[in-house]
UniProtKB/TrEMBL annotation:
The keyword Aminoacyl-tRNA synthetase does not apply. Residues 159-222 form the Homeobox domain. Residues 219-244 are annotated as: Disordered. Residues 161-223 bind DNA. Keywords: DNA-binding, Homeobox, Nucleus. Transmembrane segments: none annotated. This is Sine oculis-like transcription factor. It comes from Elysia marginata. The lineage of its organism: Eukaryota, Metazoa, Spiralia, Lophotrochozoa, Mollusca. Residues 229-244 have a biased composition (Low complexity).
Amino acid sequence: MERDFTLDPYPDLSRPNTSDYLEHLSWCWRFLHICGTGICHLHVMVGSNMAHLLAKERQFTRLRQFVSSFSVDEYAILYGDEKFNRAMIRLLVEESNYVDALCLLKNGRFYEKDESLLQTWYEIHYKLTELSKGRQLNSLDKYRVRKRQPPPASIWPENKQPRSLRAADTVVTSVLRSWFHEHLERPYPSRDDLAELARQTQLSSQQIRMWFANARRKKLKCQRKGRPTGRATSRATARSTTGL
């Protein structure tokens, strides 16, 4: 008896299971190609759901075959779908194609940003570093990798997105710089000062301390460059005394 399939990427099957769902999606995909309706939103719905399910079930060989069957137009329209991009990242990592996986993490569209994207980013860089060093990474190595390879803004969850002082707006830096110049004789903010500066800039106390530490270091470096060394000073004094 022939099964009665409808062109619905979300079928309401009795006792649904993975094999039934994949069979249904596969039938929908073939139907779209047979009808020759052109690229439409159904291609995105069916293609993204099928790719997602194949990646979830770790059927990567079948997923690669499925993606390889795409036309240029089909791939272009599916590239803008988040569910499809997540499936492709898992496929690329499974195939050890780390460069393309990182490129997709940087340039893909991810509206539901979560920890899994961050973890994937770090795991790829851990693997690349291990390949270059020829050994497994310890905790310190992984910490250094995370510092050297911060995730792009495209995958940072909103509630965890770091506020880097390098990217801080001019209002933030002007507040800190103004306080620094007003206290040049002793540019060390107290706890109350830190609390007030944190309120004005929306930065953490640790970030503010780091900013002032860098500012003091830069000031000291400039002072040393503008001041002659002891040997040069003694030579200048001797010349002025002897008239040479």
